[in-house]
Amino acid sequence: QVQLVESGGGLVQPGDSLRLSCAASGSIFTINVMGWYRQASGKQRELVATITSGGDINYADSMTGRFTISRDKDKNILYLQMNDLKPEDTAIYYCKIASPLYPGKYDYWGQGTQVTVSS
Question: Which residues of the chain have pLDDT under 50?
C-alpha cells in the first residue's frame, strides 16, 4: 500500500502562483510514475503532468508553460508549481503514483487538494 497526501491548495487571485505538494509513504515501488491530475466541477479528471522515477517528464498539451512538475526522490515528495493561475485552473488537484511495470494494477491516489482561482 502507498499513501499519498496532497497539500498547498487554496483560494488565490488570477495571476497568482501556488505550489502543491504530495507526500508519498508506504511501499513505494522503485520504478514508478507520479503525476498530477485535476478535476473541475462537472468535468472529467484530466492529466496535468507526470514524472517518472527516472526523471522523465510529460505535460498535457494544455498545461505546458505555466505548470512545472518536480519531485524530491529522497523525501518522496511530488511538487507542482503553478504560475499565472487563471479561473479555469479551478479544480481539485490529485496526486497519483503508479507502477509502469503493472499498468492499472498498482495505482494509488491522494484525497485531492482544492485550488480556487477567483477575484
Answer: none
